[in-house]
Write a structure and sequence with these properties.
two-stranded antiparallel ribbon, mainly beta, globular, 8-stranded mixed beta sheet
């Protein structure tokens, strides 16, 4: 995958202010400001090509390390996240979702945008706030510090025994998005760490 061209905002419901910022994107300025990680924040990192390493940091905290950008996400199951300055990965609170019944959309999504209709079983629901402003795409498509990120992780097994999970990502930003921005990504479990290649953030 390559960085989209400057001004390629296809599929992202941006406000006029966000479009203006996106058109002003300059990776050289990001590098000079040491902000190469703007496209590796929680609102975008699960869409960045790469591998994940998932472990338990403690009894109540799931840790997701990414080789792309060497980021670490902490999903906390109990208690509020500690007070801290906004960061690329923000503060993430996790819980097991109850079984979805009926076909109605959740309150936070307009009708027709619910990607979870018909889902059965218990998904991992994660809500992330306290984010540093960053990019939804590497070509400068912005999200603001007012962003709320909702994610749903669904695990499934193929008939041949392969294990996958799908993460549905819903970005809500009253400053730069006219409606929730919904994407999904799939990850396949590997038997070992083959291909694990931690590498720093890049602005291009």
């Amino acid at each position: 995958m390559v960085t989209p061209a400057k001004g390629d905002f296809a599929g992202v419901p941006l406000t006029p202010a966000a479009r203006k910022l996106g058109l002003a994107w300059d990776p050289v300025k990001d590098e000079a400001a040491k902000e190469q990680c703007k496209a590796y924040g929680a609102a975008a990192i699960m869409r960045v090509p790469g591998r994940l390493y998932i472990t338990w940091q403690d009894d109540n905290t799931l840790k997701i390390d990414t080789d792309a950008g060497t980021q670490s996400r902490l999903l906390r199951f109990r208690g509020a996240a500690p007070n801290s300055a906004p960061s690329w990965q923000g503060n993430s609170i996790a819980q097991w979702e109850g079984i979805v019944r009926g076909t109605g959309s959740p309150d936070f999504l307009p009708i027709g945008l619910n990607p979870r209709e018909g889902t059965r079983g218990r998904s991992l629901e994660v809500v992330t706030t306290n984010l540093r402003p960053g990019y939804l795409r590497k070509n400068g498509v912005p999200y603001s510090g007012r962003t709320t990120l909702r994610e749903y992780y669904d695990l499934f097994t193929e008939r041949n025994g392969g294990v996958w999970f799908t993460v549905t990502t819903i970005v809500e930003d009253p400053e730069y998005l006219t409606e929730p921005f919904v994407t999904s990504s799939n990850f396949k479990k590997q038997a070992d760490a083959t291909g694990w290649n931690p590498r720093p953030c890049t602005a291009r």
